[in-house]
């Protein structure tokens, strides 16, 4: 119940207005209407300015994007131009031959035609056609300048007429030099406008947008949408003039092409005398504003009507609600979540609510209106609250008598009360008392989670970056800092085999060991997953620190009864030696970590400059691999699988080959992992499956075809459907298809793996387990999973005749397979002794160079016709790596 004193001012406060003037309501309505109109006008103007600013910024960004793209295009063209010129200079005697034309045509592609002129200006060869058309430009001023001006920048384009077709075009011109360094000819490359127009048309800028290319002196090169009649005209004295001669500019102009008012942005290329101009019509840019204006006006009208309705209703109901106001106010105050107290100017209590009593544990009959501050403090002491806390609060209250203030009181029982004091007109003040214990705990938890890893208690990535930035800023001349990127090797296997709870225990244990390994000035963070980072200012002792970390991580961990012996790969980058910025130093450490993992894991590597080169080379190979996959630039070879008892060819394994036009043979060991990393392995694997089945359908009915399947490809739930569709398209019976999987696949998500294997078996497809014995071999999954064939790894076959242990292992594998009615096949058989011993041990099939390397489909077809397959031997050796 609300407790109220008898103060007259308080009664007036609670009673509410008794005579409200209608004129006052009308005046209020007029003022509110005016305010709504002003706000509406301001919002409309602000919206218009914002949209125009955004349009100008978008146009500037588009111009910058196009300029950068064109810069890269011209840089590539200059490199290609220099390479072509060098080739022509070295083979100049052949320049007028068909061979020279072929060279120029191959280099030209779709990036512009090459024209080769002799020193007299006669066209002696061209990529356009053979023989070259008769063209003579020796008397042209441009040609004389090209052949004689040694100061001319040959990397810059010139906007001239095409020497063959006569139309205006951008041209790259390179002077050719003979053995005596004298000019021997001119190589000109005309750059088609379509090269720029295709890029411009691919940008989604709206129907009213235009993109134009000018030279820096204002001559139009091309425009999209096309405006062919103006190409070659100069617009330096038009409204476009402010856009020329600056690196970046924007301007509102009247278009010289269509006369419309437009917003234009221009960007000059960094190394070419070319300006990119992007524009939109003012009406098109403001189309969105008109819609926003309609919405703003609608909202304003609705607001004005609502205000009018409220004021009208207020005038009707204000007297009716006077009586209810005090009761409702009393109920509201008494049911507040906060405690409430109100004091008059002399500091005496006027009212309080029930929540106030509950917060402080005060009896209702003891707290009465009229009590002074010291009397209330005495009651709080009697209730058992800390007297020192009460005195501290009193000093706070006296210090902040005439201003709004807050005070947090932390009680002995762990609660925190936020006391807020607000002065009121006429003297006195109101105080709210709110228990914020849970809020403070939640805020503390949020702050902790924002900066620390919840599992390990280590700083998280955000805190790590902040710390590293501060550490780099604090480096003095002569100081060095080391950043160690740590990746726990084979952690995923622990998660998949033992479960995520065990993986979490392992991560917590690893974090504890890392803390104990570093010094007091070092910093340890968890970046996510199984990645950690260490920052140490003692860079001179980084090798000793790495050794300490490796010893700690290689020692066994007991996680809920599971003994685990992990290891780690570590990449190290030094500052300022390798980088001085956060992102750059992290990138260098990440490259070093990648190098450590690539070299077999369980080791560490410092960053080396050639790691950047390798990363770029990997990126280039990835680009070429994407092109090769898109163009299906691969071949399938087939290696026979021979029955050891009959000598007949039982089937063949399909092996992927990539013959790059420049790199030559690219090993699958190089491009298959890359295809998995960049998401191409599924498309590549489907192509291999389709081609292999299409070839195998033409073999004898008894022969099977084996196709390797990537774990990424296999894990897709749709994989069995794709296999069935491939078999239906090619007409290959399902029992003639073998899909080869690895042991590692069986360790990951075994339930879904088993489901997919069973679906494939239901189709009639056979499953082969590849490279058995080299991974995490387990007899349990030989029993659990539907496997038809076990392929014995080449490493056992190589030592078969030298080590008794290998023979024992092979015999055991054969016996286990026989017990489960599974076929065994030995890989990499190269000698007759190995073949004979495998036959004695009971192995059923073999493959290897003793019989035949992998062959193209046509060569295999000839081999299949031989009667005694076992007597054939391969006269040459070639790398054998399967996909």
Automatic annotation (TrEMBL):
CDD domains: EAL (cd01948), GGDEF (cd01949), PDC2_DGC_like (cd12915). Residues 618-868 form the EAL domain. Residues 479-609 form the GGDEF domain. InterPro entries: Biofilm_reg_signaling, EAL_dom, EAL_sf, GGDEF_dom, His-kinase-like_sensor, Nucleotide_cyclase, PAS, PAS-like_dom_sf. The keyword Transmembrane helix applies. Keywords: Membrane, Transmembrane, Transmembrane helix. The chain crosses the membrane at residues 20-45. PROSITE patterns: EAL (PS50883), GGDEF (PS50887). NCBIfam families: GGDEF, sensory_box. This is Diguanylate cyclase. It comes from Rhodopseudomonas palustris.
């Amino acid at each position: 119940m609300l407790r109220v004193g008898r103060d007259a001012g308080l009664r007036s406060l609670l009673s509410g207005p008794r005579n409200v003037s209608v004129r006052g309501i009308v005046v209020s309505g007029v003022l509110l209407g005016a305010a709504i109109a002003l706000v509406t006008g301001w919002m409309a103007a602000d919206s218009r300015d914002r949209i125009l600013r955004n349009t100008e910024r978008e146009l500037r960004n588009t111009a910058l994007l196009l300029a950068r793209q064109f810069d890269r295009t011209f840089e590539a063209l200059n490199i290609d131009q220099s390479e072509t010129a060098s080739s022509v200079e070295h083979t100049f005697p052949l320049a007028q031959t068909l061979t020279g034309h072929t060279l120029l045509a191959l280099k030209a592609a779709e990036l512009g035609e090459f024209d080769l002129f002799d020193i007299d200006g006669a066209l002696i060869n061209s990529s356009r056609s053979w023989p070259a058309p008769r063209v003579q430009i020796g008397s042209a001023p441009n040609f004389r300048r090209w052949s004689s001006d040694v100061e001319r920048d040959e990397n810059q384009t010139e906007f001239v007429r095409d020497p063959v077709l006569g139309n205006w075009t951008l041209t790259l011109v390179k002077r050719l030099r003979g053995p005596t360094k004298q000019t021997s000819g001119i190589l000109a490359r005309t750059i088609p406008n379509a090269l720029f127009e295709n890029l411009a048309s691919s940008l989604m800028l709206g129907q009213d947008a235009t993109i134009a290319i000018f030279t820096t002196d204002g001559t139009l090169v091309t425009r999209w949408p096309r405006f062919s009649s103006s190409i070659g005209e100069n617009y330096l004295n038009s409204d476009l003039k402010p856009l020329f001669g600056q690196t970046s500019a924007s301007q509102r102009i009247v278009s010289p092409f269509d006369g419309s008012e437009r917003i234009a942005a221009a960007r000059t290329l960094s190394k070419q005398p070319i300006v990119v101009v992007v524009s939109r019509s003012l009406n098109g840019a403001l189309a969105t504003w008109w819609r926003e204006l309609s919405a703003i006006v609608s909202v304003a009208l609705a607001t004005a009507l609502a205000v009018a309705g409220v004021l009208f209703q207020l005038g009707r109901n204000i007297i009716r609600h006077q009586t209810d106001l005090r009761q409702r106010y009393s109920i509201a105050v008494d049911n507040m979540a906060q405690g409430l107290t109100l004091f008059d100017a002399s500091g005496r209590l006027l009212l309080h609510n029930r929540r106030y009593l509950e917060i402080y544990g005060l009896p209702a009959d003891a707290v009465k209106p009229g009590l002074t501050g010291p009397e209330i403090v005495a009651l709080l002491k009697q209730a058992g609250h800390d007297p020192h806390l009460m005195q501290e609060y009193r000093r706070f209250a006296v210090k902040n008598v005439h201003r709004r203030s807050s005070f947090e009181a932390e009680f002995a029982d762990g609660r925190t009360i936020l006391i807020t004091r607000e002065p009121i007109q006429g003297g006195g003040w109101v105080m709210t008392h709110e228990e914020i214990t849970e809020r403070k705990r939640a805020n503390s938890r949020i702050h902790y989670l924002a900066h620390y890893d919840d599992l390990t208690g280590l700083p998280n990535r955000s805190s790590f970056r902040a710390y590293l930035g501060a550490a780099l800023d604090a480096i003095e001349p002569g100081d060095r800092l080391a950043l160690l990127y740590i990746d726990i090797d084979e952690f995923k296997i622990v998660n998949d085999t033992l479960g995520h709870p065990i993986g979490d225990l392992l991560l917590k244990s690893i974090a504890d060991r890392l803390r104990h390994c570093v010094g007091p000035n070092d910093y340890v963070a968890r970046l996510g997953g199984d990645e950690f980072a260490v920052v140490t200012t003692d860079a001179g002792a980084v090798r000793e620190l790495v050794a300490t970390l490796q010893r700690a991580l290689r020692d066994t961990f007991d996680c809920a009864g599971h003994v685990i012996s992990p290891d780690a790969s570590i990449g190290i980058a030094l500052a300022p030696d390798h980088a001085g910025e956060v992102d750059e130093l992290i990138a260098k450490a990440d490259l070093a970590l990648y190098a450590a993992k690539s070299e077999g894991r369980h080791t560490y590597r410092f960053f080396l400059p050639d790691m950047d080169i390798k990363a770029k080379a990997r990126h280039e190979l990835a680009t070429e691999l994407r092109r090769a996959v898109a163009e299906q630039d691969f071949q399938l070879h087939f290696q026979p699988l021979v029955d050891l008892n009959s000598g007949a060819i039982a089937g063949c394994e399909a092996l992927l080959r990539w013959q790059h036009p420049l790199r030559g043979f690219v090993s699958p060991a190089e491009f298959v992992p890359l295809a998995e990393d960049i998401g191409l392995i599924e498309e590549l694997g489907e192509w291999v499956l389709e081609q292999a089945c299409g070839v195998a359908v033409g073999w004898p009915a008894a022969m099977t075809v084996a196709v390797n399947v990537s774990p990424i490809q296999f894990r897709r739930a749709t994989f069995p459907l794709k296999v069935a569709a491939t078999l239906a398209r090619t007409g290959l019976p399902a029992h003639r298809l073998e899909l080869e999987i690895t042991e590692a696949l069986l360790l990951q998500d075994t339930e879904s793996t088993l489901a997919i294997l069973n679906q494939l078996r239901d189709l009639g497809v056979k499953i082969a387990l590849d490279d058995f014995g080299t991974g995490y071999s387990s007899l349990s999954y030989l029993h659990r999973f539907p496997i038809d064939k076990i392929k014995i790894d080449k490493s056992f076959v190589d030592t078969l005749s030298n080590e008794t242990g290998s023979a024992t292992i092979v015999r055991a594998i054969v016996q286990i397979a026989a017990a489960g009615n599974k076929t065994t096949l030995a890989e990499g058989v190269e000698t007759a002794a190995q073949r004979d011993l495998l036959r004695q041990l009971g192995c059923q099939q073999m493959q290897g160079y003793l019989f035949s390397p992998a062959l193209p489909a046509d060569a295999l077809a000839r081999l299949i016709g031989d009667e005694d397959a076992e007597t054939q031997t391969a006269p040459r050796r070639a790398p054998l790596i399967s996909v």
